[in-house]
Amino acid sequence: MSLIPEPAARPTRRSRVIFALAAFALLYLLTIALAPLAAADSVVAAGDAPQLSFTFSWVLFLQLATSVLIPVVVGIITTKATHAGTKSILLAGLALVSSLLLEILNAAQTGTAYDVGQGLFLFLPTFVIAVATHYGFWKPTGTSDAVQRIGTGRHAA
Q1: How far apart are CA 143 and CA 50, in angstroms?
Q2: Rounded Cα distance, 4 and 13, in Å
Q3: In this model, does residue 36 exceed pLDDT 70?
Q4: How far is residue 129's CA from residue 19's CA, in Å, rounded to a whole number?
C-alpha cells in the first residue's frame, strides 16, 4: 500500500468542450432569468439632482456571449485543412450576421425602430472579441482542435 496518492485523471478535451458549452448555456439562461430584474425604471432623486438609472440589456449580453461562441462554430464547420483566410472570412461573416440579427431582436424587444447603424457598429466588437477568445481561450485550452475533429472519426481526447 502506497502513501503517495494516485494522480487524478486529466479531463479529456471532449469533457472540457462540453463543460465550456454548458457554462455558456448557463450564462444564457441566467441572463434571461435576470432580465426582468435588471429592467427596473430609473430612480428620480429629490430636488434638482440628476437622475440615475441602471438598465441591463440581455440582448447585448447575448451578443457578447455569441461573440465568444462564434470561434467554436467556425471550428465545427471547418477542418484543420481549411485555409486560415477562409476561416477568418467565415468568422467575420458570422459576426456580421449575428450583430444584425441581434439588433433585430433588440428592436423587437424594446419596441423601437431597427437601427442598421448600431447593428453594423456592433460587428466590430463582436469580431474582435471572437478573435481574442479564439487565440486567448479556445486555442490554448485545446477546444479549437477538439471541435475541428468532430465528425472526422478521430477521438477528441
Answers
A1: 48
A2: 27
A3: no
A4: 20
Residues shown for the chain: 157
The answer to whether 103 and 126 have CB atoms below 8 angstroms apart is: no
CB atoms within 10 A of CB 125: 14
Q: pTM value?
A: 0.63
Find where cell 467554436 sits.
72
151 φ/ψ sector (left φ>0, alpha ψ -120 to 50, else beta): left
Query: Got the DSSP string for 23-74?
Result: HHHHHHHHHHHHHHHHTPPPBPPSTTPPPB-----HHHHHHHHHHHHHHHHH
How many Cβ atoms sit within 10 Å of the Cβ of residue 55?
10
Contacts of 44 (CB under 8 A, 6+ apart): 51
Alpha-carbon distance 61 to 110, whole Å? 15
C-alpha pair distances (Å), 120 with each of 99, 101, 111, 114:
7, 10, 19, 11
Residue-wise pLDDT tens digits, 6-16: 666 666 767 77
- Over residues 58-65, the mean pLDDT reads 87
DSSP lists the bridge partners of residue 52 as 43
